[in-house]
Amino acid sequence: MLGNMLRVSCLLAFICLSSAGAQRLSALDFGRSLKLPEGSYEAATTSRLLNRPLPRDGIRLTSLSVINAEFLKRVFTDAPSDFGFRCSGEREVVALPGTPNDGRAFVQTLLKQSGIQPLYQNPSRLYFSAGPTFAGFNEYQGALYLSVCQATRDLSGLVERVTPHETYLGQTPYLIAADYAGRLNWCTALPDPLLRSVRAFSGSALQADVSPDGSRIAVAGWDARPAVKVFDAATGALLQTLGLPSGPVSLTFSGDGKTLLVLDANTTYTWLDIASGQTLNSWQVVSLISSDLRGAGSSLFLEWSPTSTIRVYDAARATPRFSLRNFKLNARAVTPDGQWIVTASTRGVLSAFSTRDGKAGATVSLGVTTGAGLASGPGDSEVTALVIQTAEGRPPQVVTQIWAVGSPALRPAATINHRRADMIVFDSARTTPVSIPLCRAP
What we know:
Layout: H1 2-13, H2 20-33, E1 41-47, E2 52-61, H3 69-82, E3 85-96, H4 100-111, E4 117-122, E5 125-130, E6 133-140, E7 143-153, E8 160-162, E9 175-179, E10 183-187, E11 194-199, E12 204-210, E13 216-222, E14 226-232, E15 238-243, E16 248-253, E17 259-264, E18 268-273, E19 279-284, E20 292-296, E21 300-304, E22 310-314, E23 319-324, E24 329-334, E25 340-345, E26 349-354, E27 360-365, E28 373-376, E29 382-391, E30 394-404, E31 411-417, E32 423-426, E33 433-436
Antiparallel strand pairs: 1-2, 2-3, 3-7, 4-5, 5-6, 6-7, 8-9, 9-10, 10-11, 12-13, 13-14, 14-15, 16-17, 17-18, 18-19, 20-21, 21-22, 22-23, 24-25, 25-26, 26-27, 28-29, 29-30, 30-31, 32-33
């Protein structure tokens, strides 16, 4: 009876009040289960650097040399760098017993606490900052690990995500990138490349997309809570803020530009009306499949990854409509009228599939055995294929050709010089490509 009361007390307080001897025994057993050398860890009920209680008794490593070097590099070098931090002081690793469900519960506890700035969330991982520290919580080799370091700001390794947009507005060509420090950057090919930079989130800007007509930008990220914000592409003005139930993983505009589909860390899709801010529908998928999404028409959305099929969801019904093979493909695009999905194979063949039922339509060869990029074309049922050509003694070039679905051949469009690190955008008529390098805000 007394043992049950103590266990209840530990659960409610998050800190076990049992005797020191029992605590040492528990820590010893847990450390042994992880095959850690004795003397390389100690019992822990709090994170010393975060100054916060742990959800259950765990162990603090007194020697980090007993942990896999790749794990330490990821949590104390790569992850902080991605979000614009550098571990510059003391480091702490705490291991906790528990299941993946326990880990998800602890993540939700952290997200509710004051002073926590979330940066990234997926079903098995959370990165966040808290005061002068950078921290990560994740599952690793059968345990739950909280890794914390004293950190300073260092933007030299900051991750930037280029939006998959295809058109720009106005006279100056630009591409738009979201960075993990929470900013949206407009990049040009001018000598002074940064056209505009907007602070979108206090935490991180993780994913962004541009509406099919190029007029708006949707960016998903973290303030104190996760959200999607919609900005005017021409001015950078904030137009709308849409709250999310969980951390964003991916998003896309619908083909008509009126709605957004967001995939979150709880593997749930949320379909949002931009004008009203209302949730039109939501559904959960079995696993976190991909961060690649594309809208087709008013309510159809494509989802794919290099190792999965292309799934086409009907958001109005919250169900998958059909699937397509995704084997040996370089690119996928949707015609502006939303009637056709077009894929480009690694053998240089374009294939069309109806968005109504996934049935195969026409095919056409690029005339070269190579892969190609794809973009929506200038006409309703057209796509633009982009092929990189190289020749000794001259810079690489991008050759664009337009395919009207059903036509027996492609028609030549344009040829431009291109550096492999650059991105291609088109004017609003989708006829003139421009090669633009990525830039960075100071």
